[in-house]
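Figure 2 data, in text form.
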Amino acid sequence: MNELFQKPLFQYVIILFFIVLGTGAVLFPFMDNYLVLAIVLIIEYIIFLVMLSYFSKAFIKPVEKAIETMEEIQKGNYDVRLLNNPDTMVGALNTKINGLASNLNQLTMKKDLRLEQLNTLVNNTESSLILIDERGHIQLINQKFIEMFGGELKHYQDQLYYDILDNDACIKAVQKAFVSEKNIKESFTHYIGINRFYYEISGIPIFNEHNNLKGAVLVIRDITELKKLESMRKDFVANVSHELRTPITSIKGFAETLLDGGMSNEETTRDFLRIIYNESNRMQLLIEDLLTLSRLETENFRLVLHTVNVKDITKDLIPTFMYHAEAKKLTLHVDMEENVIFKADKERVKQIFINLLDNAINYTPENGQIYLKVEKKDEYVHINVSDTGIGIDQNKISRIFERFYRVDKARSRNTGGTGLGLAIVKHIVEVHEGKIEIESEVNKGTSMHVYLPL
């Protein structure tokens, strides 16, 4: 009963004492035996205290505990629970409070999960996102925006967009979305250091259920790769047009000359027909190379893999290239390790040898040397074609695998090259999951290294 003498029950103990005292004062004139009166009053007081203690434990303490629990729930602590006895009114109240806390806890967990999912989605999207409210304050910004434009998330939060955004295109997009209340889409160029990036920005106004403007969302997408692909497509079309126009012009010109009476001279006719044949053959090679590249670049392209021996691939090629080398007064040296066996597409690997050796012969002047070496190296078959030719400038090496790129355009056209040979080699090596490296020095020669997995 110690709790009776503590707040807040002690005040009730005092009140009961005065009630008992008052009762004694009322009964005092009617009682002859004061001892009996005192004993009755003491017993009455004790009964009151016992009843007070019972009510305290049964009602007051549980209600105080319930109040404390509700205060914790108000603070956001939904894990608190009350002991309950469903047979009592207080127990029923505790059950309701526990149910409320449990429901709030579940709702909070669902909300946190959805918020986490939303944050994950927003921060891992490939586009920059900015959410701006109707007052112009930034409410949300994702990690991609920080990567694109720099800064920290906390510096943007709750700031006016025109005060914190440095990019004019972003500011204008927000303004247009607010003023026009329509979706807008524009593109702009952005520099990070010396690197240039192309971005597409979309401004999307946000409306509530009453069609009132509540803000805007900016979506910024990096289209640099698309721009590069577009540029490559335009260059490709221009190069193909140029490569085809040259032989077609020659064929048409010499054919017109023959039709206009040039066939009277047999020697001239033979020369013209030979030129027409060579130009048409050049067109055929170009078209075949383009088709080869197209097949290699298709998503559903599959290698025809077999276990092959390098000597089986090169046995028919070496005599042919020996002949071509001798015709140009070049020396072809062959160093081939025995029993180099690996899994590959035989016809594609043969094309690697043809294109590399053909390039070496075409770009090496008379009395030069060409070396073909094949060996096992670690987990690869190493194919090395070296020459003592014209070499390649260091700042041009990164471009030699581009389509139609030629180190020496005049020499390449004179030898019938299409400018696609090394691009084809690169694609063949890549689909075999190999690698290709190049070493070169102007006027000293070039060394091409191809590594194909064993």
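Caption note: The longest helix spans residues 34-74.
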